[in-house]
């Protein structure tokens, strides 16, 4: 599709100014540029700005730009300041931000008496463990929720512009109040970051022999522990009250399990542990799966030789068998010349997948439901 055709089909028209050329700002720039939208980038770091431009996230902002939409993608501790500045500088533009905390910047702006009728807070629930323009990708928003916080002063046309931005990037707009948003992300984003970091922190003094036993489960549990401390100090500080509420409840749960395990033979102790695991089962069931559906899949673990092209061959042969891969995880065993590909499929496809793959010479390590 040509840039002109993409621009005609894009919901967001005109120039979009993005302040902050880090991971989210540059990723938005890449996605909009791919749609043929004129993207003007600005950043306090000249090196970061040049890098984002070199990678194709947009062009350098100019003094005579007249953006229809301004996207503020800066750290939480300066979000309110930049929103205020952009509202004053571009009196005909709608201003949104993508900070992961929504209530604190809004309250700060209200306390300053800033006219907010052209401001709409938003937050794409997307990201990567690594930040910066070099890690930016146009596709990180596809299929992800994008929270939009409107109020009684928000005009329909301004709301449509911000929701159109989300839709153009492949995200799903969800309207929430700032308060509800901050409570929600405390539970599903901010506390999980702390839990992953605390668990991964236990590895620092662990014997090397213990860490050689690490499998996919612990890697999944601690994946986000690689996140940048500087950013998370700001995020957690800005959303401290909802985070503390969840942490206090979690600490009580941990204490109860620890008490039960101190003497597992005490009446009720084993039930307490079982109920903890069962409640986790129930919670996982509520998480949206593929296409937003709460669905359970079965997993095959296939042994894949550590040679070029083997994973592509596996996917190709699954396609020939008519098996749709719902999810994939890869694991390499230390010192082994093969990897383990855990493939999630519909339960009805398991038998056919096993028989077909084995007939083609693949080794099935296990099947899990």
Automatic annotation (TrEMBL):
Residues 299-369 form the ACT domain. Its EC number is 1.3.1.12. Signal peptide: none annotated. SUPFAM superfamilies: 6-phosphogluconate dehydrogenase C-terminal domain-like, ACT-like, NAD(P)-binding Rossmann-fold domains. Keywords: Amino-acid biosynthesis, Aromatic amino acid biosynthesis, NAD, Oxidoreductase, Tyrosine biosynthesis. It comes from the Bacteria. Pathway: Amino-acid biosynthesis; L-tyrosine biosynthesis; (4-hydroxyphenyl)pyruvate from prephenate (NAD(+) route): step 1/1. GO terms for molecular function: prephenate dehydrogenase (NAD+) activity. The keyword Amino-acid biosynthesis applies. It is an enzyme of class 1 (oxidoreductase). It holds the Pfam family PDH_C. The keyword Amino-acid biosynthesis applies. It catalyses: prephenate + NAD(+) = 3-(4-hydroxyphenyl)pyruvate + CO2 + NADH. Residues 14-291 form the Prephenate/arogenate dehydrogenase domain. NCBIfam families: PRK06545.2-3, PRK06545.2-4. Belongs to the prephenate/arogenate dehydrogenase family. This is Prephenate dehydrogenase. It comes from Microbacterium alkaliflavum.
